[in-house]
Amino acid sequence: RGIRVGYTPDVLTDATAELSVALLLSACRRLPEAAEQVRSGGWTTWKPLWMCGHGLSNSTVGIIGLGRIGQAVARRLKPFGVKKFLYTGSGPKPETAAEFGAEFVPLTKLAEESDFVVVTCALTPATQGMCNKDFFSRMKKTSVFVNTSRGAVVNQEDLYDALAQGQIAAAGLDVTTPEPLPTDHPLLSLKNCVILPHIGSATYATRNTMAVLAVNNLLAGLRGEPMPHELKL
């Protein structure tokens, strides 16, 4: 119908990467569960293994999709003492991966060797449902899974089973299927699953930048000029 479409690229990389790290730390160190113990009176005397989680030091981190956000996540995790980065995607990116000494591996190897798996890939027919029963069964029992890409990359029923049966240690999700997630969804019954309401880009600076880009696109479109960021259909 000749409708022009503007969009707002490249503005949420840092905000989403920050949230990915926050979600990873929340899940692996059991922060929501620990905070609830304070509120509910569960915090009593010191116990050796009470509220223990898993740390990043000397760990292996697997990143599914080493694009802008995946790189920004790796850049932020590196100072935590991560021993090794693995990544997978449509193909190797040697120049990009060199900054982190990251190794390109098949998805199965990434699942088997990673202590932390962070999903930052695009949703495509090839990635839809990619993180499924087979994927989770290959992960370590101590592994933590984080998804800040799109909910449909994950088979949520398989993720629930993996978490409920102790097949993996914990998960952190900023994206689900559907969104909003129904309040009676089985994943919300699990203590070892942290779910956020798709707030990856939710910083004031990022949302303001997105708004300005959108308005500039709109004004240029109304004037019949090229948009600063136009989707070529």
Q: Can you offer a commentary on this structure?
A:
One of its GO terms (molecular function) is NAD binding. By secondary structure, the chain is an alpha/beta fold. The chain has one domain (12-29, 54-201): NAD(P)-binding Rossmann-like Domain (Rossmann fold, 3-Layer(aba) Sandwich). Helix content is 35%, strand content 13%. Strands 4-3-2-5-6-7-8 form a seven-stranded parallel sheet, with helices on both faces. The protein has a two-stranded antiparallel ribbon with strand order 1-9. Helix 1 crosses helix 3 (68-77). The longest helix is centred in the C-terminal third of the chain and has 19 residues, at 204-222.
SSE topology sketch:
Elements lengths: L4 E2 L6 H16 L2 H10 L19 E5 L3 H10 L6 E5 L5 H4 L5 E2 L2 H7 L2 E4 L13 H6 L5 E4 L8 H9 L5 E4 L19 E3 L8 H19 L7 E2 L2
Parallel strand pairs: 2-3, 2-5, 3-4, 5-6, 6-7, 7-8
Antiparallel strand pairs: 1-9
Helix pairs in contact: 1-3
